[in-house]
């Protein structure tokens, strides 16, 4: 009786492994079908002058902030796109997967903060990599002709919170 349970579990495990590998192949095939990739995320403002709870949970969306996607091919810029955030601080950048007849590899694309409107919250931070940039890794949505990557949220902070540069020390 115990041997039958072990055999049955082994068979079930093999079926699950085969099913997962099939789903991965289908996902990769679907990614190749889409002609564009979508890159989305959010840009928020954190105020370090607030108490801990407000600093962590009290961030607010930054409307009008610019975020860019730069895709490289052989260490050269192959594509540059940008978008401005909406009232909720959200952006959605659409990048063509084929540029000048060459297919872009999304893993060679970097998303970063470019600018913030106004002066009250305009110091880029590197929380979630917004200041230096984040490479696209794994899409969060692959459905029909949509391949979407999500990054961030990225953060700006107030000038009072800016750390001094090494040159000004």
UniProtKB/TrEMBL annotation:
Q: Name one Pfam family in it.
A: Pollen_Ole_e_1
Instruction: Provide one Gene Ontology cellular component.
Output: cell periphery
Key words, A-Z:
Signal
Query: Which protein is depicted?
Result: Pollen Ole e 1 allergen and extensin family protein
Taxonomic source organism:
Saponaria officinalis
């Amino acid at each position: 009786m115990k041997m039958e349970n072990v055999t049955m579990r082994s068979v079930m495990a093999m079926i699950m492994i085969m099913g997962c590998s099939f789903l991965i192949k289908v996902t990769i095939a679907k990614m190749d079908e889409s002609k564009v990739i979508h890159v989305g995320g959010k840009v928020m403002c954190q105020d370090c002058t607030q108490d801990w709870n407000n600093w962590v949970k009290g961030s607010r969306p930054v409307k009008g902030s610019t975020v860019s996607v730069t895709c490289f091919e052989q260490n050269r810029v192959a594509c540059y796109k940008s978008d401005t955030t909406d009232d909720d601080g959200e952006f959605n950048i659409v990048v063509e997967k084929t540029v000048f007849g060459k297919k872009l590899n999304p893993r060679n694309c970097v998303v970063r903060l470019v600018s913030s409107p106004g002066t009250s919250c305009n110091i880029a931070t590197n929380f979630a990599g917004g200041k230096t940039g984040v490479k696209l890794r794994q899409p969060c949505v692959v459905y029909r002709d949509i391949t979407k990557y999500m990054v961030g949220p990225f953060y700006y902070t107030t000038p009072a919170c800016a750390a001094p540069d090494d040159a000004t020390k």
